[in-house]
Fold this protein.
Amino acid sequence: MTGRRGGRRLVPAYLSTNGTARPSRPQLERLSLLTTSGTPVPPGLPAAQLALLDALREGSLTVVEAAALLELPVSAVRVLAGDLLDQDLVLARAPVPVAERFDPDLLKRVADGLRALKQH
Amino acid sequence: MASAPSSSTRPTASRPGIHLPDTARDLVKILVAGPFGVGKTTLIDSVSEIRPLHTEERLTEASAQVDDLDGVREKTSTTVAIDFGRISLPGGVVLYMFGTPGQERFRALWDDIAYGALGALVLVDSRRLDASFDVLGLVEESGLPYAVALNTFPDAPRHHTPEQLRAALDLEPGTPLVTCDAREAGSCVDALLALVQHLIDRRPPERR
């Protein structure tokens, strides 16, 4: 269930960001992990920001998963998530800790994990 | 494949399986690259723990010229659906797979999706090897390490030897070439493993 099929998207992409085309901070990655911060939601939040917060209420999502769920372009979700980050309403985490980016151990864990899948 | 078990405190999600388990720690991605119809989505569907999702991506201005039909100058943007799926592995690693079309006109999108990727699994169809030249070019230019997987379509010619395929695709000797059936989970996992093993075996990459 990723949204309404054949209908218009919940929030048109051009309205979802209030006309903003660029996020307010360095680009979030497609796999940046978004989580709600637990901060009380102030009244008057734009519908699209609320929709994103709502999607995160059930658990963490990456930027690209949120985009798929809300049927919004990734670029729009980057802007929305940036706005929510500015208001401390969500937290974002890089997909992999920077120090681990080229860690051979990470690759080994991926390989071991795939091999384990084959056992089942 | 069952969705990842969620803790008992987690409320029942209305979209089960899409939200990440709390154990997710390292999110890594590989591109499953290839021309349209080569089986990218089939492969992702075979191994993904969630039903493949997709995002609608707008292509940039440069692509508008390529797509321009006679007398349809108003058509300034085109969208393409990018499918993706994921596998939660033991140890908190979540492996994402992005189905990525390889035409030159997708370059800007490609660069964005490829950012931070471990590598690419390039799917080829032996009935139309030439359709894979563009994607191989893009992968090589982007500097992503890759492996090639021949998707075995039932009516595909079987007389190609690996040497012939390597020659036809102009592969470097060290580039893994495997066959897989994109409909078979085990076969797809083997192809992914061939890529990851290649990533482990090659010299540590320069920091980009």
